[in-house]
Write a structure and sequence with these properties.
It contains 6 helices and 8 strands; from the N terminus they run H-H-E-E-H-E-H-E-E-E-E-H-E-H. The chain has 191 residues and is an alpha+beta fold. Strands 1-8-4-5-6-7 form a 6-stranded antiparallel sheet, with helices on both faces. It has a two-stranded antiparallel ribbon with strand order 2-3.
Length: 191
């Protein structure tokens, strides 16, 4: 997906990443942990390479229909209770300390996924995703859509961003999941 050679190819790939079939609200991979991440890994588009960048902590979350029905954000989705994805999920995460220590090792195109502490009444576990951009060996940034600065797409220095995540006291960050497009993982020799 990182090596699309035409706008049409970019559009097709983006559709495959976002949707499970035709472009329709019901087919969109709305939720990161139960849909977007596992679907794109099983489709061979992404590889979980978190373990390559340091010691991981294992985190578990069970998402039930009851979680979805108690979730304050469900009004945004016109789903019946059985349309919400459920199951038990496990992620290996880098701590923020480990992520800071390996900032200079992340290649261009690496996806960094922010995972928050699990809350029983909230089925959402992932709140943010950004892509690594390397401007130099020392200048590594994250490109992400954010509400900071007026809700724009922006680039922030990655060390600053990881430190910024520590300020989230009301809903703390548990860790960082590191994903790479299959082509990138093969290029960098990540198993």
């Amino acid at each position: 997906w990182t090596y699309a050679t035409s706008l049409e190819e970019v559009s097709t790939t983006r559709q495959q990443i976002r949707y499970n079939g035709s472009i329709h609200f019901d087919n969109r991979r709305h939720f990161m942990v139960p849909q977007w991440i596992p679907d794109n890994i099983s489709a061979g588009r992404l590889v979980d390479v978190t373990h390559h960048y340091g010691e991981t902590q294992v985190a578990h979350k069970t998402i039930t229909t009851r979680n979805w029905m108690r979730w304050r954000g469900r009004w945004k989705y016109e789903f019946s209770p059985d349309q919400y994805p459920t199951g038990s999920f496990t992620l290996g995460l880098l701590s923020l300390d480990a992520a800071v220590a390996t900032t200079k090792e992340f290649p261009d195109g690496t996806l960094l996924v922010v995972v928050r502490e699990s809350r029983e009444s909230n089925p959402v576990w992932v709140t943010h995703l950004g892509m690594v951009l390397r401007h130099s060996q020392w200048d590594v940034r994250i490109r992400h859509a954010t509400k900071m600065g007026g809700g724009v797409l922006r680039d922030d220095r990655l060390p600053w961003y990881f430190e910024h995540l520590r300020t989230f006291r009301r809903w703390p960050v548990l860790g960082i999941l590191v994903l790479q497009p299959v082509e990138l993982a093969a290029q960098t020799g990540v198993p």
